[in-house]
Design brief:
0% strand, Growth Hormone, Chain: A, mainly alpha
């Protein structure tokens, strides 16, 4: 009974940490491209993200060694401190080089923290409950993402973009106290498997199921990168929505992550496999992005429907890839978990590089055609995936 209560408390702590982490990350997300645009120009926004993403991938590949040596808890506290202080420093906006440094540090930090949260959560999760637990975790995280656009709209109309980073940093730093209060319960040592990044890469390549889910995750993050970085600029500058209107639009857009992920994860555990729901999600995303490219109206309702539909598909695919992956691994597979999270910045790296190159030759709206092509390619691994049920 004591173990059950302890585990329940650990779940609540991890869920709370996930919510704060997501809110601190989400708050400046939709203005970060505009924030950088003011300092370096729109044509160099992609370059800054490309550099930050490439460095994040390098750090993430060796991150498990730090966790193995110093424990997940201690490493998490250090990363929280660096990330929070870097965000507060961005408030000053002192020159392109300094901004680039602190922007990169906080970007890397957020990508590392999801690995820490994965390890905390996987350590207390049983395989039979993976879908429900991961869906609950994602729902809580995405609730923070859904709240942030309304806050974004209100803040953007009253303050400069640097204020977003100040608020986000102040949200993140107090989570260190939560970890210290829960130190005894979260400081369990785990005997992690010792695999270097090259061994991890080949173990994923040789495993068809892991290879397919990695490809799906790469495509999903390619989608997120294009939509997060360039949809706000497109809708604000070319369609003509104000930041307040965009705040409400993005909140509506993110509702599917709250509405559909928990039911989809539960269904995947009890009745269906992940394959069918993944294909459905990709199909919905393809239709939505096709409309995103073709529609030129400034109707709030039309764009609310298009954005909502795009995230219905993304929500289904996200929870299926999370569920499928964590049914295939356990907490000892830290190298593979690391690799799975490296896919996040890898998707951003591909997307930002494509944008950086092609925006020099084509109008902004054509970047969504490249997104559409990427989504259609995702049907191949989705069809090839083998259900866990």
């Amino acid at each position: 009974m004591k173990q059950i209560i302890a585990n329940h408390k650990n779940f609540l702590v991890i869920y709370l940490l996930g919510f704060i982490w997501a809110l601190a990350m989400a708050l400046p997300t939709y203005i970060q491209s505009s924030f950088l645009e003011e300092i370096v120009g729109v044509d160099k926004v992609g370059l800054y993200f490309t550099i930050a993403t490439a460095l994040a991938m390098v750090v993430m590949l060796g991150y498990y060694q730090l966790i193995k040596r110093f424990s997940n808890l201690m490493v998490t506290i250090c990363v929280l401190l660096i990330t929070g202080l870097s965000m507060i420093a961005l408030r000053q906006q002192i020159g392109a080089l300094i901004v680039g440094l602190f922007f990169t540090l906080q970007y890397i930090g957020f990508n590392l923290l999801i690995i820490n949260l994965d390890i905390f959560l996987e350590n207390i999760t049983t395989n039979s409950q993976t879908g429900k637990i991961r869906a609950t975790f994602l729902t809580i995280i995405n609730t923070a993402w859904a709240v942030s656009p309304i806050l974004m709209g209100q803040i953007a109309e009253r303050f400069d973009f640097g204020t977003f980073y100040l608020i986000a940093g102040c949200l993140l730093l107090p989570t260190i106290l939560i970890l210290l209060f829960q130190k005894k319960q979260l400081s369990l040592r785990v005997s992690y498997q010792d695999r270097n990044p090259i061994d991890t890469f080949f173990s994923v390549i040789k495993n068809k199921d892991l290879r397919n889910v990695f490809c799906l995750r790469l495509g999903l993050n390619y989608f997120y990168a294009i939509m997060v970085l360039y949809a706000p600029i497109y809708l604000h500058q070319q369609i003509g929505f104000s930041w307040t209107e965009l705040g409400f639009l993005f909140t509506i857009m993110l509702l599917p992550f709250i509405i559909f992920q928990l039911p989809a994860g539960t269904l995947a555990d009890r009745f269906f496999g992940e394959k069918e729901i993944s294909i459905l999600g990709i199909g919905i995303m393809i239709i939505a992005i096709l409309f995103f490219f073709l529609v030129r109206t400034d109707s709030f309702l039309a764009w609310a429907i298009i954005l909502f539909g795009s995230r219905v598909g993304a929500a289904l695919l996200e929870v299926m890839t999370e569920t499928y992956f964590f049914k295939k691994v356990n907490v000892k597979d830290i190298g593979i978990i690391n690799g799975f999270r490296v896919i996040g910045p890898a998707g951003y790296l591909i997307a930002t590089f494509i944008a950086f190159v092609f925006l020099r030759f084509v109008p902004l709206e054509h970047i969504f055609l490249f997104l559409l092509a990427g989504l259609m390619c995702m049907l191949i691994p989705a069809i090839a995936i083998k259900d866990t049920k």
